[in-house]
Specification:
- With 335 residues, this protein is mainly alpha-helical.
- It has 13 helices and no strands.
- The two termini are 13 Å apart.
Length: 335
């Protein structure tokens, strides 16, 4: 395609569209119809130029023109409390439900890895000695030692905030790094399971596994589930680069990337609940059975939330993506 000829053929349309956009709301009915038609034609022109004769300056100019026209045609919509309610009751649980085939296997395999690490450390004294000196190990695992006092080392409010921040960062990393073929996500998972496995092994080696589980399970069930959801979603995002399915790679990655951003917000709320439990319930004077029961109830509530609300929304066609009017327009592909 001769780019100069193409530009000369359509320059008047682009200038006319720019003129109509500058007039804002002072358009007649006929002019508004003309603006819509010019917007559609200019979007097609941009697609043709991008696919056959890409020119950075012209592409940037038309991209900006199409974006302005789209905003004028569709309008700028502000988020409302209705959007928040829809996200929490439909969008987020549907996105988690749809990615269950990724995060459930991730959870099972990760838990198995942590259990194997814990067994290996707990049954091999030479591995324990490689972790720390005997005196340091005794200080960590003794009654009233570091593993127990960790949860009450700071005021509950500040401790819960610190835990929430750290866990939300880990979940966000899993979601963000998934685009790198998921490899960094596996590393984040391994570090988390290694820390859990070390605690399991060291406390089991001194016969205090029940104490360790009594401290970890109240908050750990919900906390680890959120991390597994984030990791599974990140891995799914990475796999999209390899196999985008029936969509183009760009469209599939954009759709799942937008859903992942929403999941990051939703998981931050889930981890906030886990942080509150870890800050106020785990170090409390409640009996172990009561603390674990609170953790189990929180976990069951989340799973019911995902499988009941999320399952219903997913079957109705919800994907967790933003509404169609708020997405970037998918430009037609030139033949």
């Amino acid at each position: 395609m001769d780019l100069d000829v193409y530009v000369n053929a359509h320059q008047a349309e682009w200038d006319r569209l720019d003129h109509l956009l500058r007039r804002g709301r002072r358009l007649t009915g006929a002019e508004a119809d003309e603006l819509v038609s010019l917007y559609q034609r200019t979007a097609t022109h941009l697609s043709v130029i991008q696919s056959t004769a890409p020119d950075p300056a012209l592409t940037a100019r038309l991209t900006q023109l199409v974006a302005r026209a789209r905003a004028a045609v569709t309008g700028i919509r502000r988020a409302t409390w209705r959007d928040v309610t829809h996200f929490l009751s439909v969008g987020f649980p549907a996105a988690v439900y749809r990615s269950r085939h990724w995060w459930i296997p991730t959870a099972v395999l990760s838990t198995l890895v942590a259990a194997i690490i814990g067994w290996w450390i707990g049954t091999h004294p030479e591995v324990q000695s490689a972790i720390a000196a005997p005196d340091a190990l005794r200080e960590m695992t003794r009654p009233g030692g570091q593993y127990e006092t960790y949860y009450s080392s700071n005021p509950a409010t500040s401790f819960a905030a610190q835990v929430w921040t750290n866990n939300a960062r880990a979940a966000a990393l899993c979601l963000a790094l998934g685009a790198f073929l998921g490899v960094p996500v596996l590393w984040v998972l391994l570090l988390n399971m290694l820390n859990l496995g070390i605690g399991l092994g060291l406390m089991a080696s001194v016969g205090r596994l029940d104490t360790f589980l009594g401290l970890v399970l109240p908050h750990g069930l919900l906390e680890l589930t959120a991390v597994f959801v984030a990791a599974g979603t990140g891995l799914r995002l990475g796999w999209t680069l390899i196999d985008p399915g029936p969509q183009t790679r760009r469209a599939a990655l954009a759709q799942r990337g937008r859903a992942a951003i929403g999941m990051a917000i939703g998981l931050a709320l889930v981890l906030f609940v886990a942080g509150v439990i870890e800050g106020f319930v785990t170090p409390s004077d409640l009996p172990t059975w009561a603390r674990i029961s609170i953790g189990v109830l929180a976990e069951l509530a989340f799973l019911l939330y995902v499988y009941v609300l999320g399952g219903r929304a997913a079957r109705a066609g919800e994907t967790g993506d933003i509404d169609a009017p708020d997405r970037s327009a998918d430009l037609p592909t030139a033949a």
